[in-house]
Write a structure and sequence with these properties.
Elements: E1 3-8, H1 15-28, E2 32-35, H2 52-62, E3 67-70, H3 81-94, E4 99-103, H4 108-111, H5 121-138, E5 144-147, E6 152-156, E7 168-171, H6 175-181, E8 187-189, H7 195-204, E9 210-216, H8 222-233, H9 240-243, H10 249-255, H11 261-267, H12 274-287, E10 291-296, H13 302-321
Parallel strand pairs: 1-2, 1-10, 2-3, 3-4, 4-7, 7-8, 8-9, 9-10
Antiparallel strand pairs: 5-6
Helix pairs in contact: 1-2, 1-13, 3-5, 8-11, 12-13
């Protein structure tokens, strides 16, 4: 069975709004909710970046059924892995076991704020591997001392640690990262509907979930939907190689200045046509995703999307996926 999720997009909504949307998303029937973990929005027009972990704590208290996850947290620079381990353990207890810790190697946009410079990709992957090992060790509840290439941990213990630790999803992008991080992950997170990657994951992790994300721009008027998507989501087409390295919203504005509205409309389903959204999302479950989170573009239509479109859309998605 394919599970359908709702994205708490911290880059486009304030903290109180995100909690309200989370409650509404659970009410209309979404199976899970994922939260981005950003220090900055992608573009100034998005206009928000509240602290994801505070929001998730509030959401855990305000909801009862939906699973929750970070999509994704980078435990390599802005956060020390020992702190991530503590936060994740607390979230798992607050949510009564509904939390998945989604991890990745991060983006310059969020991590450069500590002033430590942005490491090259090979180093970031090395740091992520070491960070996951530390988090796993701390989630045993035992006393941990660690002296590695990038991190030190001195006599640390997670005192409020859920039994069995916290399930970990890791963002992977190809065969090389799958071979490296597959043994460390419970679940796969990836951005592209790549049947080869998803199939290779399933061979090694038959019980592991495959979690993806799809942006949509629902609106009663298609032109309005395209305008909103172009204004706030034109950065999306840059791809991971670009998006990981640009340092500021101004950089994303410059990199996406020549993206046309028609380009956005071709990559993101825009407007009131729910069948068109289903058609786009179907490429993800056909590729093998078990969990697909929708991103509704724009804060101004978020509540209306949840009130008017989300429930019939979920019904169409589930019928089609079945």
């Amino acid at each position: 069975m394919t599970r359908f999720g709702y994205t708490l997009m911290t880059e486009q909504s304030g903290p109180k709004e995100l909690v309200r949307y989370a409650v509404a998303a659970e009410r209309v029937g979404f199976d899970f909710e994922v939260s981005s973990d950003h220090y900055s929005p992608w573009l100034v027009s998005q206009g928000h970046a509240p602290y994801a972990w505070t929001v998730l704590g509030a959401v855990a208290n305000a909801t009862e059924r939906v699973e929750l996850a970070t999509y994704v947290t980078a435990p390599i620079q802005r956060y020390h892995p020992a702190v991530v381990a503590q936060k994740a353990a607390t979230m798992q207890l607050l949510s009564d076991g509904r939390f998945i810790l989604g991890l990745g190697s991060g983006e310059n946009l969020n991590e450069h704020v500590t002033g430590d410079g942005w490491p090259p990709i090979d180093q970031r992957q090395d740091m992520l591997e070491e960070a996951v090992q530390i988090i796993r060790a701390l989630h045993t509840g035992e006393l941990v001392t660690w002296s590695g290439e990038y991190f030190r941990v001195d006599s640390a213990r997670i005192w409020d640690c859920p039994e069995g630790g916290v399930p970990i999803g890791i963002a992977l992008s190809g065969e090389k990262s799958l071979q490296r991080f597959g043994p460390l992950a419970d679940h796969l997170i990836t951005t592209e509907p790549d049947p080869d990657l998803l199939g290779a994951w399933s061979k090694e992790h038959p019980e592991g979930r495959k979690i993806g994300q799809v942006p949509i721009s629902w609106a009663p008027d298609r032109d309005d939907a395209i305008e909103r998507a172009h204004d706030q989501f034109r950065w999306f087409g840059g791809g991971w190689a670009v998006n990981a390295d640009l340092p500021t919203p101004a950089g994303f504005a410059g990199a996406s200045q020549f993206v046309r509205k028609q380009d956005v409309a071709e990559s993101i389903p825009c407007g009131p046509d729910l069948e068109k959204i289903v058609e786009t999302v179907s490429t993800f479950w056909e590729a093998g995703f078990t969990d697909i989170a929708l991103v509704q573009v724009g804060d101004d239509l978020q509540q209306r999307f949840l009130d008017e479109a989300a429930e019939p859309l979920l019904a169409l998605l589930r019928d089609a996926a079945a």
